[in-house]
Amino acid sequence: MSGSIPFYQKHHLHYDRGYRSKETQSKVSQYQASSRYSASGSASAATRSRGLNVSSHSGLEESRLSPSPKRAKPTYLAVDKDNQIIGYVVPIFRGSQEFATGLSDTEEARVRDTAAYMARRDLFTSGLEMERSELISRKETMRESAERITLNKRIHEHEEHFKRMNEDSLMHAPEFVIKPRSHTVWEKQCVRLHCTVSGWPDPRVVWYKNNVALDPLANPGKYKIESRYSVHSLEINKCDFDDTAQYRVSAMNSQGELSAFASVVVKRFKGEMDEFLPAPRLGPVSEYGITFQTHIVDKFGVSFGREGETMSLGCTVIIYPALHRYQPEVEWYRDDVLLSPSKWTHMHWSGDRATLTLTHLNKEDEGLYTLRVTTKSGYETYSAYVFVRDADAEVEGAPAAPLDVRCLDANKDYIIVAWKQPAVDGGNSILGYFVDRCEVGTTHWIQCNDTPVKFARFPVTGLVEGRSYIFRVRAVNKSGISRPSRVSEPVAAMDPADRARMRGTSAPWTGQIIVTEEEPAEGIVPSKPCDLQVTEATKNYVVLSWKPPGEKGLEGVMYYVEKCVSGTDSWQRVNTEIPVKSPRFALFDLAEGKAYRFRVRCCNSAGVGEPSDPTEATTVGDKLDIPSAPGKVIPTRNTDTSVVVSWEASCNAKELVGYYIEGSIVGSNVWEPCNNKPVNVTRFICHGLITGEKYVFRVRAVNAAGISQFSQESEAVEVKAAIGGGILHASPAPPYGITILECVRDSMVLAWKQPTFIGGADITGYFVDYREVIDGVPGKWHEANIKAVSERAYRVSDLKENKKYQFQVRAANMAGVGIPSLPSNTFLCEEWTIAVPGPPHDLQIREARNDSLVLLWKPPVYQGRDPVNGFYVDIKEADAPEEAWRGVNTKALEKTYTKIKDLKEGEKYVFRVRAQNKAGVGKVSDVTEPVPALTKPGTKEIVVDVDDDGVISLNFECGNMTPDSKFVWSKNYEDITDTSRLTTETKGTKSKVVFNRPGEEDIGVYSCLVTHTDGASSSYTLSEEELKRLLEISHDHKFPIIPLKSDLAVELLEKGRVRFWLQAEKMSNNGKVDYVFNDNVVSQGEKYKMNFDKNTGVIEMTMESLTPADEGTYTFQLQDGKATNQSSLVLIGDVFKQLQKESEFQRKEYFRKQGPHFIEYLSWEVTPECCVVLKCKVGNMKKETSALWHKDRHQIKVDEHLGFAEGVLKLEIAQISKKDAGVYEVILKDDRGQDTSTLNLTDQGFKDLMNEVFSVIANSSTPLKITSTDEGIRLYTFVSYYNDLLQVTWHYKDSAIAFSDRIKSGVVGEQLWLQITEPTEKDMGKYAIEFYDGKGGLRRTVDLSGQAFDDAFAEFQRLKAAAIAERNRARVAGGLPDVVTIQEGKALNLTCNISGNPVPEVTWLKNDREITSDEHCILKFESGKFASFTITGVNTSDSGKYSILVKNKYGTESGDFTVSVFIPEEAGGKKK
């Protein structure tokens, strides 16, 4: 609800009841709470209880006061006579009745139902007395409450004065007034833990989960921690199984520390649907029964960008098992706000990598970015901060751009623009801001204010109703104007009610809401506006708001605003020219410091209405004060490049936007912003600092009125990783696993395991306590050692024999002594007398890899009757039963370490060790913690190295070191004591041991362990064979040879020059080379040119040409300090002659290419269209160069003015034939010379060309197909082009076909066919056509048998019969006209030809009716060919349509003609 109310309404007294003093609120709530337990038997108490309900606004309070059941929830649905829902009913507000009577509806019902009320109902007088009694009771109650509030206020003021005067005497350690309680909740629910803490000074409260401090920023959206008025809460959002834990809240001040505990248990609801089945999914992926494991790797870190840049954040997401097309839900958040794709943010999911691209960085993009990957088995998140630095100012000294421009309270012609001030002012204070607007769809920006405004909100007026705008803001100081901010989201200038209707809210399914608009009433002057008030006042402007008049349907209501100076009655209209449409108005140009009153008039076409009630006097000036400077700033070490900065919030800051933090290197006096976007918390991690430097910090608060003064500078802090990685309490966790290694009459030797958490610093020692246990009751603890012991074993002396004891151990580091371990089991102090050894102890795991690890242990303290002579190691899977223990070694180990191999990757194992002596195998050691056989990411191994001086060293690098990490080298897993043989050197993340005098004494296993890491370690076995190999390499390095990348070689350059060259691997500037030919050193001169490039190591010698005297051996001798090498090349005999010949050829070629020349000589190619193209590639051409084409020494073509320096010349032969055979020649010539290229296309050359043509034709042929004709069956294929020289052979059953009158072949256009006339079954079989191309040829085949033959033969029979029928069917050959016009009385004789076999039958028709021959109409059919039609004397009755119909067994045909008879008189009349 509050989100929809403009910001300037939230400070009015009518908005909420925040105007009450805290004391009043507290006392009223206390009095209400106490009244719940007052006796209900007395009438006065009941009356007082009801009276108190007047000021109670909580439904919970009412429910507690009223024991009667609640009435039914009222319905707001409109129904018709048939109880059908037709709409909504809007109820009238009834709050005034309840407050007037002082009774709620439920209380009235309860009172009405009592017997007392029934008895008094008939007594009018008694009723009046009861009402009077209730009125008096309420007055007394309110008076008592006011007196009590006044008294408590005085007491409170006295206590505060006493505290200030006697602070030290009031200081006390924290106390939990209310401790947090444990909760059991369902999965996906939220849970809140509360506690109330007292203490002076105010304690600092930290929440822990399983002793790990909770950081809400590290888990955005998961945890929310609040502290208000000594009430502290931890809210856990959307609980899952991982949230089941013990939570601890720690309160600490200068007087001490106190903790309280609460447990949270998260349960999963098992309803009708199986809890392991996910919701149905669309698509082919089935997830049922699958538990996904999600891992986010290759993560983005804390990132820094600059405005205007593009930044991509990405993580690789591994989901196991990997299902094809499975799509997890991938979401990105910034400061716990879900991001959506936009022009500023692009999101991409490739199937295994999630990427967020910030296309154009602005300071709005700064914040904590979180990637959340959700599967049906849960979700994984990862977060890192992104910092955005300001872009360089366009004007030196100008401020940075403002940010987060938003539009508030949009109306028809009025919008309030708000923004946040930048952190950087350019070195001069910001004078104000300019607001620009731009209509959506255009690029024209208009400045809205002529003078800068300092307030970070500005009302923009003069907008056009219905249009959308975007806004931006620029800051200005005396040096210039900043870059513009990022533009706001578009906003439309329209009535908020219209905007709500445009958003569209659908009615529920039970009914509908019908919105109608009344016809505007004409000629009615609107009444006065109401609820006029000043919603915002600054020294630059004042904003008024009001409500329209109550009448509905008024025509076009607008408003005039008037003002007058307070104390006068002279009203002046502000907007004299144009009335405003919105019930909001901003007044500018008011005199600062003066008081004004305002009023508003409505107007329309009917006139101007009465003015509203004036406002109270408002003084022009900033009502919102700039916040005060933040309090004490405390920096805390965090990492090597970051510091946690905390500060006290600004006091009484209103509308606080956030804080800006700045940091400076001590002594530099240069302050840099740590954040460019205000943060609304009082703790911030400043990243990007320089390791080892000391910084001081300061903080400023920001609200709309401006930026506060700087806080006091913090104390200097060195940028260095904090102990415990930033955890406040860095003392070690308790040790565990206390066991007895030896027991004598008055002492016991204890052993224990190192704490799982050492606090980030080395453990400096352990403290042991013991206590005696008598009859199961433990006594008081006693210290066993005053000085810390460094080993994890200690002998506790001065014990009593046959007494029982318990022990506890505490670990200590530089941060302090940790909490003690849990008490051990109860041990009896009696002397061991067994013959076998006691248990080994201090088992450690090193060098865990995918298939192996190293196990170390210490021998037993108690050796038994005889010395220990060996050890046995047992192994089993961590989840396996006790029966699964098995031995690693069958023969006893002499050493106290072993490498265990052949482990299963990812499996967890546990180990134990037993010692043996002559008497047998002794007790087993404690079992190790489960350890997985897994190589951790970033694991590196020890690398052996031999440097240039032959020095042998072992090198180890660790990438995940902490500032307190150290390299610890050992030989055979024991400390190295003889430092004369080894020298250790460590720099940064690398360490090495150097063998001073390598020899047999150095043989052994060398290992390196890095402390304060997750077990980073490695080992290297230096065996006798390995030592021998390293010594050989060392000798080679001491007496080195210059390595060569390539030996001496020879190659030819242009002009036929000869180059001898080699390349050395590496040579210094002092290196030199001797060039030797046949044992004689040659030097630079006309014949030999030498060059030595020391950067690349290339050494070369060139000669212009070779002569017979140059045959022999060439050698390059290299020397660089003490390193030498040489390489030789022998050039004698045929090798030298071939090189000399090639050199001469290259020399000639060079001179040939000085003029126009052929790069590629004349050749031919055949195009897919069977066109032959003669072509050649030429170069070094000029416009004057001509190309002459000849055939058989006759010029056939001239190419001139070619226009290119290098190109291709072509001659096309479209349809090649024998006449095109010949010798073709191309001559290039100009003033520089000429070059010739010849191509012989005769004899074999022409055959090769035609064979290629035939091959192209053959490849273009279509598959052989079968068709039928009326003569037989035809096989055919099409080619793209047919040439008369093409040789084709038809085959039947792999034999060439002998053609005859019955079987023929031919060519029609591009169709090649084979005709089989009158086919029979003997013609069935496989047919083929073979194209000859001089190579393998190409054959197309078709099988004319089976169904193919049957179908073709049937089609042939059908076509044959159809042809016979077509030839023999009855026909009217001709002779009949279409129309005959004849004079009455004349004779008509028509004859037509008839054909057909057999002879057709002839029938004559008149007007579609058959006629027969008679004396008037004589019909004849003679010789089976001629049909005649004769009318001896025509008359008008003979006019009509006549037809002749001929018919035989093959068909029927008809011929039509029309006879028109006319009378001569009629004809003459027509002419007249």
Short description:
This protein is mainly β. The protein is built from 14 helices and 101 strands.
Would you kindly provide a written description of the structure presented here, covering whatever features stand out?
With 1472 residues, the chain is mainly β. It contains 14 helices and 101 strands. α1 packs across α7 and α2 crosses α7 (124-165). Strands 47, 48, 49, 51, 52 and 53 form a six-stranded antiparallel β-sheet that branches.
Keywords:
single chain; 1472 residues; five-stranded mixed sheet; mainly beta; 101 strands; six-stranded antiparallel sheet; disordered N terminus; extended
List the helices and strands and how they pair.
Layout: H1 22-35, H2 43-52, H3 59-65, E1 77-79, E2 85-88, H4 95-101, H5 105-113, H6 115-120, H7 124-165, H8 167-170, E3 172-178, E4 183-186, E5 191-200, E6 204-209, E7 212-213, E8 223-228, E9 231-236, E10 245-253, E11 256-267, E12 293-297, E13 303-306, E14 311-320, E15 329-334, E16 337-338, E17 345-349, E18 353-358, E19 367-375, E20 378-389, E21 403-408, E22 414-420, E23 432-439, E24 445-447, E25 457-461, E26 468-477, E27 480-481, E28 491-492, H9 496-503, E29 530-537, E30 541-547, E31 558-565, E32 572-573, E33 584-588, E34 595-604, E35 607-611, E36 618-619, E37 633-639, E38 642-647, E39 656-665, E40 672-673, E41 683-686, E42 694-703, E43 706-707, E44 717-718, E45 736-743, E46 748-753, E47 763-774, E48 777-778, E49 782-783, E50 793-796, E51 804-813, E52 816-817, E53 827-828, E54 841-846, E55 853-858, E56 870-877, E57 886-887, E58 897-900, E59 908-917, E60 920-924, E61 931-932, E62 943-946, E63 952-957, E64 967-971, E65 974-975, E66 982-987, E67 990-995, E68 1004-1010, E69 1017-1022, H10 1024-1038, E70 1044-1052, ...
Parallel strand pairs: 4-11, 13-20, 94-101
Antiparallel strand pairs: 1-2, 3-5, 5-9, 6-7, 6-10, 8-9, 10-11, 12-14, 14-18, 15-16, 15-19, 17-18, 19-20, 21-22, 22-25, 23-24, 23-26, 26-27, 26-28, 29-30, 30-33, 31-32, 31-34, 34-35, 34-36, 37-38, 38-41, 39-40, 39-42, 42-43, 42-44, 45-46, 46-50, 47-48, 47-49, 47-51, 51-52, 51-53, 54-55, 55-58, ...
Helix pairs in contact: 1-7, 2-7
